[in-house]
Design a protein that fits this description.
The protein is α/β, with parallel strands linked by helices. The protein contains 9 helices and 20 strands. The protein is elongated. The N and C termini lie far apart (about 55 Å).
Length: about 475
């Protein structure tokens, strides 16, 4: 009897060590092409498995992260899995932490297993054993819940799933600032990969993609020391507490960079955040920012909760050239912003420069919120051999602590000279820079058929490695 108990104890220890051990290499499929949430729904409000899978396949996605949030989600998942198994679509179960439960932190209405994440793990392991396409489970906003998900508890919930199906992996969703050496050292033994939502931290936006490569280089190298990889999450749906919604071009830019890093073996792959799979829908919360009948505009922003310093700026620049035989270059700008004459002056300044010389300027608090046109100005004296650089920017005359603004330019009219894309209706022609800090610039294009357009754009990128 004593020998039998000892053998059982040894077997249990071996099983736990197997579940908690760090594999020699990161295990997610290299180059994964995923999408999360926002499925096609039936008229009764339940997930339509066939229609959702059809849209995933048309987008060349090989993985779908199924969000468990509503009281019907678990039953919908169990209906979805047989269809995904037949189609060969990999599935992750995507859970929310206590702070995101329907009844925040209590989780009594987070069904069926409430706040018992070991029970969730066992149930997911059971489903994975029945449906081998179920490969992993993910936890949203993991780093905001680290007091609950300690390394010890995370090891327990991961082990609970792996005790039933040893191949099941666990992916926490962790924002860039929280992926530190200390985090990696503590959690690498009890996780399999990290999902990184890109939002240009610490500036939280879906307008600027210029910091992505630096984040991927730095964080992927940190995780590689423990044989773990990043999975890049791209905001294809509106991110809360931001001023500009992601458009098709933004999603394409971030996705393409992620696919390049996956092809190079630096990250495991890319997952779209809530890309709407139902066709024909506009972006949630989006509206046209352009002047006139167009859809595109140059947008420059500062968020209200982020301080700036005097001299901070964000800018868009392009090359201006005189027409053959012309000796003048007369420019007229259309501009607007969301501040009024009741707001303080001398902080946010809209400016136009030619080859470094300011040729026009307006304070955001000097006019109302309508579109205004500038007086014509001849910028030819600032060109060299008929060529110069036109820069439109938002400049900080004084630093702010809590003074938000959204400024826009559009429909630049030039006489005697020309630039590429003066109405911001196509992509390209402009380069975007910022001095550092939360002043942002980018082109935004409204699309009333956003869900159809972004699905097609991501599908073209995913097809490169399908």
């Amino acid at each position: 009897m004593r020998t039998s108990k000892a053998m059982c104890l040894v077997a249990l220890v071996v099983a736990l060590l197997t579940a908690l051990s760090v594999p020699a290499v990161a295990t997610p499929p290299q180059g994964l092409r995923a999408s999360y949430a926002n499925p096609v729904l039936r008229s009764d409000g339940h997930v339509d498995p066939a229609a959702t899978i059809e849209r995933l396949q048309a987008m060349n996605a090989d993985t779908y992260a199924f969000l468990i949030l509503k009281d019907t989600s678990w039953d919908d998942l169990r209906e979805f899995l047989p269809a995904a198994q037949s189609a060969g679509i990999t599935v992750w179960v995507y859970l929310v932490p206590p702070t995101e439960c329907p009844d925040v932190n209590v989780c009594d209405r987070y069904l069926p297993y409430k706040k018992d994440y070991e029970a969730w793990g066992r149930a997911i392991g059971t489903l994975a054993k029945q449906y081998p396409v179920l490969k992993a489970w993910a936890m949203d906003d993991f780093n905001h819940n680290q007091r609950f998900f300690t390394a010890e508890y995370t090891g327990k919930i991961r082990a609970a799933a792996r005790a039933v199906q040893p191949s099941v992996e666990f992916y926490p969703v962790v924002y860039s600032a929280a992926i530190t050496q200390a985090f990696v050292t503590s959690y690498a033994p009890v996780i399999d990969s990290v999902i990184l939502p890109f939002r240009d931290d610490p500036y939280r936006n879906t307008l600027w993609s210029g910091s992505l490569r630096d984040q991927l280089d730095r964080l992927s190298a940190l995780l590689a020391r423990k044989n773990r990889k990043l999975i890049l999450m791209v905001y294809a749906s509106t991110l809360s507490a931001t001023q500009v919604t992601p458009d098709v071009q933004y999603v394409s830019e971030v996705t393409e960079i992620g696919m390049q890093y996956a092809a190079a073996g630096k990250i495991a792959g890319v997952i779209q955040y809530a890309l709407p799979l139902t066709p024909g829908r506009k972006q949630n919360g989006d509206a046209s920012m352009s002047h006139g009948t167009g859809r595109g505009a140059l947008v420059l922003t500062v968020r209200g909760d982020q301080p700036t310093a005097a001299g901070n700026y964000a800018a868009a620049s392009t090359t201006v050239r005189l027409d053959p035989g012309s000796t003048s270059c007369r420019m007229v700008l259309w501009h607007t912003d969301n501040r009024t004459t009741n707001d303080p002056l001398s902080y946010h300044l809209k400016q136009a420069l030619v080859s470094g010389h300011q040729v026009w300027g307006r304070d955001v608090a000097s006019e109302g919120t309508d579109w205004y046109t500038s007086s014509p100005v001849d910028i030819a004296p600032h060109l060299s051999n008929g060529v110069g650089t036109l820069t439109l920017r938002l400049y900080q005359g004084k630093g702010v602590t809590n003074y938000a603004v959204v400024a826009r330019f559009d429909d630049i009219t030039l006489t005697g000279c020309q630039i590429v894309n003066p109405s911001f209706e196509t992509t390209g022609g402009w380069t975007y820079t910022r001095s550092g800090g939360p002043v942002l610039a980018g082109q935004h294009t409204y699309d009333p058929e956003y869900s159809t357009s972004v699905h097609a754009a991501v599908g073209r990128l995913y097809a490169r490695t399908a």
